[in-house]
Amino acid sequence: MENFRSFADPVTFSMIASSDRSHAEHLINMDGSKDRVLRSASIYGANASGKSNLVMALGMLQTMVLRSHLAQLGEPIPFFPFKFGKPGERTSTRYRVVFLASGVEYEYSLEHDAERVLNESLYHYPKNRKAIIFERSDGRTLRVHQDGGPLRAIAEKTLPNTLLLSKAVQDNHALVIPAFRWFQERLMVILNINSMVVEERALARMQQDEKFREFLLKALKMADIGIVDIRGKVVQMDQDELARMPPEVQEQMRGMVNGKIEQWRRLEIKTVHQTQDDDGEPVRMELDFHGEESLGTQKVFAVVSLILEAMESGRVLVMDEMDLRLHPLIARFLVEMMNDPEQNRGNAQFLFTTHNTNLIDLDLFRRDQVWFVEKDEGGRTRLYSLSDFKVRKDLRVQKAYEIGRFGAIPFVQGGKVVE
Asked: Quick check: 98 and 105 in contact, CB under 8 A?
């Protein structure tokens, strides 16, 4: 990507494995390709260095692909360029993503500004040979595949502020559907893990799939947070319940649902703990999930449910601050789940940002599974991997990172704030 928030200059993030021979079990073999890909990768950096921007970029591209066909004529395209450069220095944002869909490699590229799509292309590699699906420039399709007459006709009806990939799917053009479904069904971008959407999704999966419920409760038990069961339901909120909330919350909620209060709902979740009474007899106690459980417990529930869902269906799960509020040992437990081929049988991939330096451990990660972001004095973020450094196998990489050998740490000035 290029020119998205703090990523002013072109940067490339890749899950293709390097020549590192350690932890071969952390790799996924791909049919028809000599390349192997990583099961997981972590991204480190100081606060405000750009870690979240990488996650946002993936989420923004996904949102545009899935929803661009809804744009009206003249409606602006979401555009978040680098703001600290010279006026007019950078006028467009660029993305390029390479992925596997239905066993075939695809390459999708997009360049846009706030008003229109400047360039867009989609290629695939059937039989490992690159073949064009479409190339589009300035709202016109310049090249299409051999039988691309229908696609050319769709492009002529596509608005300048609309992605052809999104529009072609609405017209049920078969050749673009596998790429669209990768964005729709395989890519999961989570910026706010502790959200009602994640919790509601987890509850629904527990109710629909007993095996998923069993695995989730087992993971919570292994994480030692004391929960033996979880029950929940969606409760519709009425006008009286809303009226009891603070005015500023009411206003925020009204704005989010366009004033339609009847659309609002909340989750009512109960957790069950097994304890002992004074006589040593087992007792089950029910707690309110949001009112009585810690934020850390809520986070474990959300993250574990997302990891299990991704592993079940072989998704690419991208999480910002995956282990915020989690004990380092629980975070390590979760990473070991991701990297374990016996548990991750669906070959899911995980990308997450973190500040937990305890995870920078060559017993836990390969060098190419550890990435860093760092801002320069001009506010530009650069992205690089631990594999870019010559690192001995016995090096204490956590300590080396903390003393600044790899960069991507805050340089906190000492001294007194209050005098």
From this structure: yes
pLDDT per position as a tens digit, 27-49 = 999 876 778 999 999 999 999 99
Residue pair 214/229 in contact by the 8 Å Cβ criterion: no
Identify the residue whose tokens are 């004074």: 278
Residue 337, both tokens: 């789940």
| Cα 387 to Cα 268: distance, rounded to the nearest angstrom | 46
Residues 174 and 204 in one domain: no
Three-state SS annotation for 6-59: CECCCCCCCCECCCCCCCHHHEEECCCCCCEEECEEEEECCCCCCHHHHHHHHH
Retrieve residue 267's tokens: 């989750």
In order of 180, 187, 340, the CA distances from 65 in angstroms are: 7, 12, 32
Last residue of a domain, one of 293, 314, 335: 314
Helices (H) and strands (E) in the chain, counts: 12, 16
Per-residue pLDDT tens over the stretch 110-149 = 999 999 999 999 999 998 889 999 999 886 778 888 777 8
Q: Which residue has the tokens 């690419």?
A: 316
SS3 of 365-386: the string is CCHHHEEEEEECCCCCEEEEEH
Number of domains in the chain: 2
224 and 174, same structural domain?
no
Are the C-beta atoms of residues 361 and 62 closer than 8 Å to each other? no
Q: What is the DSSP letter of 84?
A: S
Question: Is 185 found in the same domain as 44?
Answer: yes
- Shared-domain flag, residues 284 and 325: no
Q: 160 and 269 share a domain? A: no
* Residue 416 burial (10 A CB sphere; 0-12, 13-18, 19+): exposed
Q: Quick one: 288 and 356 in the same domain? A: no
Q: Does 228 lie in the same domain as 152?
A: no
217-231 pLDDT per residue, tens = 999 999 999 899 999
SS3 319: strand
Point out the domain boundary residue: 314, 332, 348. 314
Complete DSSP assignment for 241-295: HHHTS-HHHHHHHHHHTTT-GGG-EEEEEEEEEEEE-TTS-EEEEEEEHHHHS-H
As a whole number, the mean pLDDT across the chain is 90
Domain hosting 28: range is 1-191+320-419
Query: Which of 275, 328, 302, 290 is closest to 220 using CA atoms?
Result: 302
